[in-house]
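## tool: complex_structure
## caller: assistant
## args:
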Amino acid sequence: DQQVKQNSPSLSVQEGRISILNCDYTNSMFDYFLWYKKYPAEGPTFLISISSIKDKNEDGRFTVFLNKSAKHLSLHIVPSQPGDSAVYFCAASEYAGNLIFGKGTKLSVKP
Amino acid sequence: SQTIHQWPATLVQPVGSPLSLECTVEGTSNPNLYWYRQAAGRGLQLLFYSIGIDQISSEVPQNLSASRPQDRQFILSSKKLLLSDSGFYLCAWRNLGQEGPDGYTFGSGTRLTVV
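## result:
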């Protein structure tokens, strides 16, 4: 039973446009949500996070939105750049708990 | 500064052969250590985690085992590999002093292909 779901395995976006990656979760005890970025043959790197007491967190071109009632979060990348092409993993945990990852969404940003 | 080392980077092993993947962390003490696996189409699955020497928790039943003989060393093993053990294995650590789960740092991974 997947507790963290990324239902879109891939997404293709034109350079300069907005990329929106979506993530749903089922465990209402999760109180911390994160996005990781992963290039092929490398380990994931932390991108941005949000705690359950917030509904938005912004860091440069990256913004994460959290809708607790819908158990849904999204990552917005504006503007998208070719270097953003990677697999993006959504992850969640209870505070101080282990990270639970989604299956990932492969983002392709075309010049 | 803290660093995490994982080796080898790639490995091709025949079915039935043993496995040993090693992960070491530098620049920190008493970290939480993790083994994740990324199998084709399955995202990142937590296999084992350890909160201290010889303290291992398994998240999923499988053909693999883990050991932590030293504070900053985490080893993933198998006595007999199966084809289904193929995947990308990632070691990660988390400093207990860091608030929130964004304290995870991942190694560069090992691509294991069982043939």
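## assistant note: Chain B has a mean pLDDT of 88. Chain B has one domain: 3-114. Handing back to user.
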